[in-house]
Amino acid sequence: MIPVFFAFIFVVVSPSIAKDSNKALRFGNTTNDHITWAVSDLTELETQFSVCSWVRRLFNAPYPVIIHYYPHTHGFLLGSRGNHNYVVGRNLNLRTKYGEIPDGEWFHVCMTWSSTDYTTIVYLNGEMAGSKLTRHKTIGGTRDGKFTVGNAASSKHPTYIFGGDLYKLNIFKRVLSVQEVRKMSANMCSDEEVRLNEFRSFRWEDIFSKPRSGSVTEISVCTDGQAPAVDQEEESTGQTVISEGILERLESTEQELTETKQQLATIQSTMSEELAIVKSTLAEISKKLESTEQELAETKLNLAQSEEKLRNVTEFWNQTLIDIEADKEEEVSSRWDVFYSEKYLDKKLTKEMIQETGLESTDGDILGLFVGVTITEDLIDYLKQRHDETVICL
Fold it and tell me: Is the whole model's pTM more than 0.85, yes or no?
């Protein structure tokens, strides 16, 4: 059963390998030399993509563009001199790295991006050349946009003329691994791109067949037996070829899995350390909160006690003031009431009586006016009412 399955895969894939496998496209050096097509739905690439191609520069434009997806703020642009490695509003300039590659020489470039970490990564000939964080946006989606190969999609401009050769320009709907990029860049005549066919959103075969503007011509590459064409002997042993390819992919997957496990272990170790620090910090904060709550409770208790003392003091002073006022009134009233007793009433007032009552020190001058006068209730009432005024002897 398994051999039949392998054979079936070989029959389906092999025509794609052979079709246009030895043809590249040469773009002229005018603003009219490009391939452009519109797209209305790019949800496949919205959160991640990879764009890869073989490139040969033949014209010295300052900012040559390989491919551009527009609208700009939700698109991407890949150039051939390192000026443009642009994704959703952020550009990675690698002109120095690209400058190490002579004009007229084939090289492989691959740019990847994902909204998982919003990072653009660029590979030159299978090696990472640089990376950059982008804005937190997505690619395309359901927005109306367009692709242009060979110039800028927004406006065709002389500074953006590509003027060179492109081969196997593919756009993938996921981030390719380092191993996949290295295999792809190892041999421009291999069929590595076709092995990743299920992840290709825009295939070289389809771009190759799109309508062309201006001078965009076909040239032969991978000739002299180097092209991955399929002859009768390979077709008869297709099962073996595909089996070896699958085994190679499995080995690569195992290697990637090992690397992923190592990265995961590192992340887990780092997270454990950070978690321990967070727990320790939380424990300290908890202790401080408990201490603060205890201090707050004690402060509230002290405040309540202080308020109680203040109330008591206030009540004491209020009562004291009341008592003082009452004493004053009682003193004013009682100092005259002494005369109501049988000892003094209806008798003539003498200096000795004044001394006995103790009023000599406070009201002696007033009472002195009444010495020799008979003490009556009317006189006493009069003295009560007029004790603070000058009294004239009646």
Answer: no
